[in-house]
């Protein structure tokens, strides 16, 4: 048994996790910086914190939707009643299913599945309407995942939607429907392709390997230019599968490709996952400068400290199940995030200037999982009521609250309370030297004015002053609620208290 786990199951997980392990440290603390600057020729192509309208819009999105859809959705993480759990790293990775539970000749079965791809219920307008009702301002859509199956009729590979019974261009329908709803579209594009004979994980060594990989690079370039031409409304690309040594070795090509894409499509947004510098540094070049327009490594994780972000734009992409981006028929026996969990993550992201992107994995017919439908509806109801605290807001320079998350717009301060105090007094801490402190408070929903009073609790060595907002008697809320406060100059300095003598 153990032998089988080592032989079959571990490699599948290792592909997914070692790939990301090397970069993992980037996302859980301050960024690494060399002691002395290093010469970097293939570094960032755009200024830090772009100020153009497209990037400003990105900053203000707040909430996004990710959709993983493809041939893997037909399987739903199982095949003929046998679950792929434990045998494949994630539902959209089911092609790499291995070990004792894997069906016989599985890869071959998978590679022929597209011949059954005929999603009878697919209606991009319905998805777009749902996303709009949820409050999403942008969508990231998988045009091609690691299996290489293209959901648009690409001229550069036969493994594409036009060869399936469905035939029609799915990417076009998604781009058009979401754009019509006022939702910006970003195309997810996996560089890595499992069944492309010209793709390889290792850096090409021999002339033959170099020739093949070069072909692959040009194929990738062609597909990207094709997407820009076919779908000129898109705002950006969301790249994935860029961690292999082969892609990393092509830093000159990828540098020029990024330049070309940007020239062809002014304003295009590309995250930090696309390419690396000549020293192999991904996301950030060897001097710690970001490679791309925003941090693209917050995948199923969120920053703990605002300072870790060093002022970069960023988004976090999140699954509802623990992992698994493509459709999973069976959600039993695993913890799936609740609406409250997700709203907490949304507001945590917003409090640190990030966007929160929630993933959906429709089934092979084009229907969302019923639980996803429910969550989207619940999120939408909450977001609609509390929109002011979510969109067009920035990080507030106040002492972080254990009760929830601050966001700010001009002199309006919002505290989204997730942990309601038992005494109904929401205590807000402002640094003693703060130029702006809360002066009035109300409930965002309903606008009821609340009593706000300074609370000079006189704790020695304390760097804060406090403001207590009293919740009305009988106030009930079955989800997080937002306090809206007006910021103004502090009315009086708190009395200088005598230091304790010990
Ligand atoms: O391997 C993929 C995975 O299947 C999924 O697409 C996620 C989404 O961010 N990206 C990769 C893992 O980092």
TrEMBL record:
Domain Glycoside hydrolase family 29 N-terminal: 49-388
Gene Ontology molecular functions: alpha-L-fucosidase activity
Keywords: Glycosidase, Hydrolase, Signal
SMART domains the UniProt entry points to: Alpha_L_fucos (SM00812)
Organism superkingdom: Bacteria
Single GO cellular component term: lysosome
Pfam families: Alpha_L_fucos
Signal peptide start and end residues: 1-24
The EC number(s) this enzyme carries: 3.2.1.51
Single Gene Ontology BP annotation: glycoside catabolic process
Enzyme class: hydrolase
Family: Belongs to the glycosyl hydrolase 29 family.
Functional note: Alpha-L-fucosidase is responsible for hydrolyzing the alpha-1,6-linked fucose joined to the reducing-end N-acetylglucosamine of the carbohydrate moieties of glycoproteins.
Full protein name: alpha-L-fucosidase
Organism of this sequence: Pedobacter rhizosphaerae
Lineage, top ranks: Bacteria, Pseudomonadati, Bacteroidota, Sphingobacteriia, Sphingobacteriales
């Amino acid at each position: 048994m153990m032998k089988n786990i080592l032989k079959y199951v571990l490699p599948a997980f290792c592909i997914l996790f070692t790939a990301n392990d090397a970069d993992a440290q980037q996302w859980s603390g301050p960024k690494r910086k060399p002691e002395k600057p290093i010469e970097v020729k293939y570094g960032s192509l755009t200024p830090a914190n772009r100020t153009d309208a497209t990037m400003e819009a990105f900053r203000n999105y707040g909430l996004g939707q990710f959709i993983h859809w493809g041939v893997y959705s037909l399987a739903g993480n199982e095949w003929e009643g046998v679950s792929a759990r434990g045998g494949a790293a994630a539902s959209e990775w089911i092609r790499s299913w291995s070990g004792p539970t894997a069906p016989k000749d599985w890869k071959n079965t998978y590679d022929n599945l597209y011949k059954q791809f005929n999603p009878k219920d697919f209606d991009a307008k319905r998805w777009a309407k749902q996303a709009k009702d949820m409050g999403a301002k942008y969508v990231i859509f998988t045009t091609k995942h690691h299996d290489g199956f293209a959901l648009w009729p690409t001229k550069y590979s036969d493994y594409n939607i036009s060869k399936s019974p469905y035939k029609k261009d799915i990417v076009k329908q998604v781009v058009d429907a979401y754009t019509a709803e006022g939702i910006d579209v970003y195309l997810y594009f996996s560089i890595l392709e499992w069944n492309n004979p010209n793709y390889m994980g290792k850096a090409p060594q021999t002339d033959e390997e170099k020739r093949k990989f070069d072909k692959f690079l040009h194929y990738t370039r062609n597909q990207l230019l094709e997407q820009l031409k076919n779908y000129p409304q898109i705002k950006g690309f969301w790249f994935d599968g860029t961690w292999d040594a082969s892609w990393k070795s092509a830093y000159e090509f990828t540098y020029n490709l990024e330049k070309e894409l940007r020239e062809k499509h002014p304003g295009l947004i590309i995250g930090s996952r696309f390419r690396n510098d000549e020293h192999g540094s991904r996301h950030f070049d060897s001097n710690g400068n970001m490679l791309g327009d925003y941090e693209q490594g917050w995948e199923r994780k969120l920053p703990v400290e605002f300072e870790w972000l060093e002022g970069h734009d960023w988004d976090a992409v999140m699954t509802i199940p623990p992992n698994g981006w493509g459709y999973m028929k069976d959600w039993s026996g695993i913890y799936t995030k609740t609406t409250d969990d997700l709203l907490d993550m949304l507001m945590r992201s917003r409090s640190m200037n990030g966007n929160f992107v929630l993933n959906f994995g429709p089934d092979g017919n084009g229907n969302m999982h019923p639980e996803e439908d429910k969550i989207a509806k619940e999120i939408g109801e909450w977001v609609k009521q509390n929109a002011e605290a979510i969109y067009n807001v920035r990080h507030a320079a106040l002492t972080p609250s254990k009760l929830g998350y601050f966001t700010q717009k001009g002199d309006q301060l919002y505290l989204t309370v997730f942990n309601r105090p038992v005494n109904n007094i929401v205590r807000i801490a402002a640094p003693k030297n703060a130029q702006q402190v809360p002066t009035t408070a109300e409930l965002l929903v309903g606008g009821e004015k609340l009593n706000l009073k300074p609370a000079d609790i006189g704790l020695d060595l304390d760097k804060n002053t406090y403001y207590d907002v009293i919740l009305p008697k009988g106030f009930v809320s079955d989800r997080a609620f937002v306090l809206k406060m007006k910021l103004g100059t502090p009315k009086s300095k708190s009395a200088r208290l005598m230091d304790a003598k010990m």
